[in-house]
Amino acid sequence: MDLTTETTGVREELLRRFKESGERERMQDILRNKLHASGWQDRVKDRCQRIINESGESVDKLTVDDIAEEVTPYARSSVPEDIKAEVLEEIRKFIYRSLPESSA
Amino acid sequence: MASPAGRTQTQSPPPPPSSSQPAARGRGGASGRGCPHIASKTKTILERLKVLVPYANVCRHRQALLQGRRGASGGTGNREATPAGGADGDRSRKRLVEEMPPPVCLQCSTAGDRLHACLGCDAFGCWRPRAQRHGQTPHIIQHLTDSGHAFALDFVHQQVFCSACNDYVYDSTVQAWLMGTQIRWHAALCDSAEPEAKRPRIVSTGADLSPAQTKYLREHGSIAACAGVRGLHNLGATCYLSVVLQTLVHNPLVRGWMLSDGHHPSRCRVGRVLEREPPPPPASDDSGEEEVLLSGGRAQPAACMACELETAIQAIFSDTHTPFAPVGLLRTLWTLRSDLAGYGQQDAHECLMAVLDTLHVGFTENATSDSSTRNVQHSHMAPCPCLVHQAFAGVLQSTVTCARCGNATHSHDPILDISLDIPSHTRRTPEDSALSTPYSLGPRNSFAARATDAVLGDWLAARRGTRCSASLTQGVHPVITLQDCLAHYTRVEHLPPGTYACSRCRSDQAATKQLCLKELPPVLTFQLKRFGHAKATQPRSKIDSFVRLPLTIDMTPYTASAMAAHAQAIGGLRASAGAATTSTGSALPGRISNIPVHDVAAGSEDAPVKDTPIPVLDGPGGSTTLGKRRTDATHSNPACCYRLFAVIDHIGHLDTGHYTAYALHRGQWYLFDDAHVSKVSVRDVLAFTEEAKVRAGRPAKGKAYIAFYVKSILDYHDMPGAVSAGAASAAASASPTSANVAANVVATGMGSSNTRISETGEWIEDAGIVRTRINPNGDVKIERRGRKKGSTNARKVKQEPDTSKKPVKKKKNSSEQGFSTPLDTFSSPTFGINPLALNAKQSDSSDSDGEALWTQISKEKAGSDDLVPMTAIQHAVRDDRPLFNATEAVSPADKSGFTPAIALDNDYDDDDEEENSDFGM
């Protein structure tokens, strides 16, 4: 049994099903709500405003891409750990649901 | 710009003039406002947007739309179950919503990562963050450069990107259209979130401004640079009054009402009657008082809080920069509320309640003679049409459930604000924390489970390695949030035996009690109970706990309907003994287990995956999340979304201290500290530093005492709504359909309109150039009134179409100033037609009715001169058609079906533009 191709196949199939079942969108919604409840959104928004304010004279040349670039490391790192864990848990549940029960 | 090119060139719009590119790259300070390229292309872009935006909305709100359909069926487990009373329209809508696939990037076939749609052709491209695209240009930019197309639409955020400017651009026409669409979708989403709900609407001022007046105001009026931001003198420990006044002034509803002539001191019958000079010298009050006493014979002193508030708002919005002394207001407060009189320190919340109370008196005393406000239909528990109750009044529902027989009794109470206890700890129940630990999942006996864990563990470890630390989120100490307070407020309380006697089973055994919000007011006021007993045994003291306020809050989980759905879902879960679907996930429903993943992976194409979709569990947020915090719910009603606009802080102790207020004014936060006003940022308002302290476990002080939230999108009801509402109810007696139609048109109808019922029972609403006729059968007909002189229907329309009634997006600050903005004007006459009005029509009859409406319109268009059917209605029909019957929506007049999946008419009529220019566009 070729384990790598097997794994890749399962992975692709899971990804496909993840999208098609709407699970991806549902997860996005959950994540969005959780992040908002944790105040993450407000903090990132504040950081973006600060970036714009600090750009000063060059504010006209500042693009959304620049702001996104600058804020991404902060935004990424400020996601609370428990939310990461919870979302991971959700994903795990989805995978468990999708995989056959006894394939050992 | 009615060029024929714009009409036929949708397939391949001409590339932007090459000369404009360098100019755009080097756009500098003075001329850099606005994109120079988009102005000539708006027509083409709008045509394209009419296809893309509904598609984007379906993709974005797919879950909500599906949930709504399922919600109508009572949230039962079967996904395929259609509601018993469901119509064909619903089913086809649901099917299309389900089947409309999310787009993917043409180059890398991924669905995420800031997907953009080209506005020149059908291409989609992604825009990865720089770190992930390894120096390559984003795929959408690549596409735009290769094809020479100029614009792209951010598919999620719906912003237009200009490749020449290399940034997102904001063209007023396009933005206005997008906003109009957003408002219509707001209505649709609200309805799908809560199908049978009646959204409460606010009665707006009846400020009658003719279009000419509006135009004059727009051209000649100017907003003083500092208008609205003015300090208030402390008149001797009156900071409690200052903060209350500041929050009232910056309350969009109060301000809008007051600035649009909602209360006339000259006409006021409560306060001074006759000669009242515009700047009110407080000294002259005595004479006025005498006069009232003489003329009206009133026993109580003549003091009107509404007049004083009007004066104060006029003063605050004047050109003057020096601090203002609200002497008259203070005097009135002291006169009317002797308990607050004197130079002692008062509680701001008490003061707020007193001011609202006296304002209510001031408004209602004058309204009694005004017949227009008397007959307006109101929600059952908020019978008062005055501004105070329109803005602040909600309904609290208290449910007591007998623990023995399960009999639930509801009682409803009107509220003006919500007083929240600050829980001493956040509600992290043990099961929550168990769920948050990554590796606590049940027995991992199967190979698949072990493999999954291994892969996920590796992935997690890899992510952890690259993670950089952030001081703000470090620390495990939980922060109490406003949501925690609300959850505490709406928690299930156990009543001890003997306190409640069940009316059904006569038992006085244990019962549970739960509070929730039956009706949400447009302005939500939260008081955090900081002054009280931290514990029952302790003496009265101030509670200093930090409470995090969110900038926006979704109140859906605390509403009565969400509670009911929640209870139902739990009940259903218990009833079906659904242990199989409980949250551990280790025990799987048998029907899922038999999907042969491995077969599919091995390449067999005929695996029946499509026929056995993975069940998405029903109920709000899926039953897997039921045991967890309510923020997990994906179910959200956009009508319950609020945003923060003012906070009152208290600094000091229980008996002595100082109040300051933060308020949002034209997108900028200000700190009002008596006479001092300073610009602040969000992190000051929300006290990020204190929050960081809490997280780190250090002592922190929370200052926020009262928080004011306003609905993100308001539903306005017009003052002449007396007639409209009457018409709606008249129509309701005719048929339920027409009731829906009428109500919806009332909801999003166009401004201060003339509404009447004709002899034949038709409900006719004249708004600007648009005349809406609704006959008793519920057929909606929208006509454009001709401008020919001598025509019987060409009566001059007196009222500005959009001053008040349509839902106003509160983001635009200029629209809050009491006169309408060009944006509003645009979105109203053309797009104020509620899709639901049409959808209701479509959905409960067959599709051919839509065609009938169509041909009717076409016929009329060809037929008469002075009654031209408004072309916008065609767009309204067309725009929403992809939702319901995308494939059939090919019209006879369709000129360019350039999108294979969604055929739309792109007949963007020139007349629309003409009309807009009439309104000063």
UniProtKB/TrEMBL annotation, chain A:
The keyword Iron does not apply. GO terms for cellular component: DUBm complex; nuclear pore; nucleoplasm; P-body; SAGA complex; transcription export complex 2. It is found in: Nucleus, Nucleoplasm; Cytoplasm, P-body. The keyword Transcription regulation applies. GO terms for biological process: chromatin organization; mRNA export from nucleus; protein transport; transcription elongation by RNA polymerase II. It comes from the Eukaryota. GO terms for molecular function: transcription coactivator activity. Pfam families: EnY2 (PF10163). Keywords: Activator, Chromatin regulator, Cytoplasm, mRNA transport, Nucleus, Protein transport, Transcription, Transcription regulation, Translocation, Transport. Component of the nuclear pore complex (NPC)-associated TREX-2 complex (transcription and export complex 2), composed of at least SUS1, SAC3, THP1, SEM1, and CDC31. TREX-2 contains 2 SUS1 chains. The TREX-2 complex interacts with the nucleoporin NUP1. Component of the 1.8 MDa SAGA transcription coactivator-HAT complex. SAGA is built of 5 distinct domains with specialized functions. Within the SAGA complex, SUS1, SGF11, SGF73 and UBP8 form an additional subcomplex of SAGA called the DUB module (deubiquitination module). Interacts directly with THP1, SAC3, SGF11, and with the RNA polymerase II. Belongs to the ENY2 family. This is Transcription and mRNA export factor SUS1. The gene is SUS1.
From TrEMBL, chain B:
Residues 57-189 form the UBP-type domain. It comes from the Eukaryota. It catalyses: Thiol-dependent hydrolysis of ester, thioester, amide, peptide and isopeptide bonds formed by the C-terminal Gly of ubiquitin (a 76-residue protein attached to proteins as an intracellular targeting signal). GO terms for cellular component: cytosol; nucleus. Residues 906-921 have a biased composition (Acidic residues). Residues 230-712 form the USP domain. Transmembrane segments: none annotated. Coiled coil: none annotated. Its EC number is 3.4.19.12. It holds the Pfam family UCH. GO terms for biological process: protein deubiquitination; proteolysis. Keywords: Hydrolase, Metal-binding, Protease, Thiol protease, Ubl conjugation pathway, Zinc, Zinc-finger. Residues 815-827 have a biased composition (Polar residues). The keyword Zinc-finger applies. Residues 1-37, 69-92, 272-292, 604-630, 776-827, 889-921 are annotated as: Disordered. PANTHER family: UBIQUITIN CARBOXYL-TERMINAL HYDROLASE. Belongs to the peptidase C19 family. This is Ubiquitin carboxyl-terminal hydrolase.
